[in-house]
Amino acid sequence: MALPEQIDIAKLQAAAGEACNLLKVLSNPDRLLLLCQMTQGEYAVGELETMTGIRQPTLSQQLTVLREEEMVSTRREGKHIFYSIASQEALAVLQVLYQIYCPKD
């Protein structure tokens, strides 16, 4: 009879820390709104401002947090910076949140 696998508590603690960090980033309404919008594709800063109603400097502050936390990636084209979701973990959580909370058409 095989013994149950030992749980590596250090790995479990590290995973819990990563999950907590992701949830902390998502817990801000402006960042959540920005990420929700980016689930639909890549957007320039001006487009994000128009679509979400988040104004400068709040928009820049929240995009900076998302960049620092590696939730989004950027691409420069001339004077425009485009943002898209880089974190597959964040995208998976956003898909679940969408199913639960977003209005059905």
Give a brief outline of the structure:
It is built from five helices and three strands.
Which secondary structure elements does this structure contain, and how are they paired or packed?
Elements: H1 9-26, H2 29-38, E1 43-44, H3 45-52, H4 58-68, E2 72-77, E3 80-85, H5 88-101
Antiparallel strand pairs: 1-3, 2-3
Characterization of this structure:
Helix content is 58%, strand content 13%. The chain has helices at 9-26, 29-38, 45-52, 58-68, 88-101; strands at 43-44, 72-77, 80-85. It has a three-stranded antiparallel sheet with strand order 1-3-2. It is globular. The protein starts with 8 loop residues before the first helix and ends with a helix. The model has no long low-confidence stretch (mean pLDDT 93).
Task: Spell out the key features of this protein.
105 residues, 3 strands, 3-stranded antiparallel sheet, alpha+beta, 58% helix, single chain
Number of helices: 5
Helix content: 55-70%
- The largest sheet has its strands arranged as 1-3-2
Structural class: alpha+beta
Largest sheet: 3 strands, antiparallel
On the 0 to 100 scale, the average pLDDT is: 93
Give the oligomeric state of the chains in this entry, treating copies of one chain as homo and distinct chains as hetero. single chain
Distance between the termini: 53 Å
**Beta-strand percentage?**
5-15%
Low-confidence segments, ≥5 residues, pLDDT <50? none
- Report the C-alpha radius of gyration, rounded: 17 Å
Question: How would the global form be characterised?
Answer: globular
Number of strands: 3
The sequence of SSEs as H and E is: HHEHHEEH
